[in-house]
Amino acid sequence: MAEAHQAVAFQFTITPEGIDLQLSYQALNQIYLSGVRSWKKRVSRMRNRVIKGVYPASPSSWLFVAIGILATMYMQSDPSMGLIAKIQHLHVSLSTQGQTMVSALVFSTLLWLSLILALRFCLKLLLSYHQWMFEQHGRVSNTTKVWTLLRLLSGRKPLLYSYQTSLPHLPVPAVRDTLTRYLESVRPLLTDLEYKRMTDLANEFESSLGNRLQRYLKLKALWATNYVSDWWEEYIYLRGRGPIMVNSNYYGMDFLYVTPTSVQAARAGNTITALLLYRRMVNREELTPSRVPGTVIPLCAAQCERMFNTTRTPGVETGNRIQASLNMLPGIPPVVKSLYLFIYFCCYFVLSPPRVPWAQIRKEHFSSGVNKRSLDIIEKAAFFVTLDDEAQGMKGDDPTGNLDRYAKSLLHGKCYDRWFDKSFSIVIYKNGKSGLNAEHSWADAPTVAHLWEYTLATDAFQLGYTEDGHCKGEVERSLPPPHRLSWEIPSEVQDQIFSSLTVAKALADDVDCHVFPFRDFGKGKIKKLRVSPDAFIQISLQLAYFRDRGSFCLTYEASMTRLFREGRTETVRSCSNQSCAFVKALEGGECKRLFRQASEKHQNLYRMAMTGAGIDRHLFCLYVVSKYLGVDSPFLKEVLSEPWCLSTSQTPVQQMELFDLKNHPDFVSLGGGFGPVADDGYGVSYIIVGEDMINFHVSSKHSCGETDSHRFGAQIAKALQDIMAVLSADTPSSSKGPAQPQSKKLL
């Protein structure tokens, strides 16, 4: 066995002259280096715990406090108001001068800790204030002005998790508030009779079961860090029994116009190196915490903890995950080019079966022996890499069609050449194009997007390539070679593989993907009209859907709740009374006033979702409590079964400082996308790139005769143009309206 050979550090034989030791110095050196790395990590973690524990102060601030106390005592003043004297009585074995010194240091330490607790309390109060998001430009309240003191507590550079204990907990909205907002959200989708029926159901729920469920939910909120996240992960993701390919996983693309190198192995080497550099920053907590763009407001970093070395493992009823240290690539190689030795590795297995058969096969055939050893290597690895034998990207005579095929390849591949259970898988194509496929249960798109932005920028601008497209540097010859993983696949497992492959291929073939860059204008022109770019796009999607289907639908827009500890997402119900009124008015004639109202309404819905006043997560948790109590609610059952025929999300651009678009305008991101949520609906992802471009990813199912991704993409482009024409028709008058505060869009 290969691992047995690598484990031998020395050999010995017994000879007539005595014992002859045959030491393997290379192996012993690797053991020594491994121990050094291990102790460095321990010291670094201890140091980080101290720094986080005293944040927003610094460990060195203790010295200033101690010097200050000693200086005042030297000046015959007692800053402790007698406490130092009382502490002196506890030291009977020291001299008088020694007792005074020790007592002053003890008092300084207690005072320092008290100041830290006070600062942390103030920081938590400041982070709990969210009214700043609702302020209008030029009309800032005095409370918000005082709140800007938060900047004074954010001056010192924090570690990745420095803010975690200071973030507020997600509040539980009042049942009445949630029901009122829910009824308002479905009003444009229901007839008068249907709306009256739903109102009666809501009122009956509030007067009977609602308050009882709410008490349990508030109890959980007092006890748990976040009253939503664990149930959301368990019931929305891990308890899904179908394939996670297409249905759950999402993808991210490479640069739109350029490919840094056409050499597949070189692109893989740089990409892996960049990812390991990012992993090292996460492990050392050197990564700067994400913030609301344009502010000092930190976002929860909890999702970073499970970014690497994480795998979603199946169960018969639910899925669990494991997290372990990387055992194939223990560190970053001395030179990038050495990774050539590692990347020619392939594992052939159907990777997206339904969860129940996969769980049963795993338990029976992959829980021991060679299969378990090989599976452990993959599941404990930092991430998965696929060297694809196809070429992808916007290329050739059919760039539009090739972009669509590129999206489908990243979304599902050949159904057996991606490891969909890994936290994320990197795909390197034959022509050097790259991309990723991410599993959704452990984190949301912004966390993965932040990683991918860093990877693309580091690959292209920091590591770089030689003139002939190869990695820079020299090969480190002492690195161990790669080893092929062994598998034992009996006939019953082969039968299940082919059965699962049939299911997966049918699912993949049904996906209709369309990717298109919209270049007519971008956020620069939209902002000149004093309109939120996200609201502009969302209202355009409402117009496009109405023209495509002749009606409105329940619309899902993902919003983050990472202003709160362990926050994930909330739903913005983008189809509102105001947006529907505008669409109807536009179809019958132009009406700017209704657009302004619809835009302002959308912004307010988004702010409420970000600040814990959303609808859907609260209703979801009430439903979970009802199931635990064994009680049935017709209202909750109907609400939770409503289909999202239009599911939308914005891919965030969080690190524009990494990309010099002025000198390198071709290095623009394509963003990423996901599969349709409803069988008869659309999935739409978009990324706002720079000032003049918006990239869209549209998905639907071929099996639905009423949807067509290319047709809907054309409707989106026309809707954007038509709304811009309406708002630009009389620019002076359109700019006289009240300025709308810009929400911080992250998803």
Helix content: 40-55%
The fourth-level CATH homologous superfamily of the largest domain is Choline/Carnitine o-acyltransferase, domain 2
CATH architecture heading of the largest domain = 2-Layer Sandwich
CATH class of the largest domain: Alpha Beta
Which residues sit in consecutive blocks of at least 5 with pLDDT less than 50? 1-12, 324-335, 337-351, 733-747
Main-sheet strand order equals 9-15-14-12-10-11
CA-based shape: globular
* Strand percent estimate: 5-15%
Termini separation: 47 Å
The major pleated sheet works out as: 6 strands, mixed
Work out the number of β strands: 15
The averaged pLDDT comes out at 86
CATH topology term of the largest domain:
Chloramphenicol Acetyltransferase
Evaluate the radius of gyration. 29 Å
Number of domains: 4
Pfam family, one: CPT_N
Domain Carnitine O-palmitoyltransferase N-terminal: 1-47
Family: Belongs to the carnitine/choline acetyltransferase family.
Keywords: Acyltransferase, Fatty acid metabolism, Lipid metabolism, Membrane, Transferase, Transmembrane, Transmembrane helix
Question: Can you walk through the features of this model?
Answer:
- With 747 residues, the protein is α+β, with helices and mostly antiparallel strands.
- The protein has four domains: 2-54; 61-158, no CATH class; 234-475, 2-Layer Sandwich (Chloramphenicol Acetyltransferase); 512-611 and 642-734, Chloramphenicol Acetyltransferase, CATH 3.30.559.10.
- 46% of the residues lie in helices and 11% in strands.
- It is built from 23 helices and 15 strands.
- A hairpin with a 2-residue loop joins strand 1 and strand 2.
- The radius of gyration is 29 Å and the shape is globular.
- The two termini are 47 Å apart.
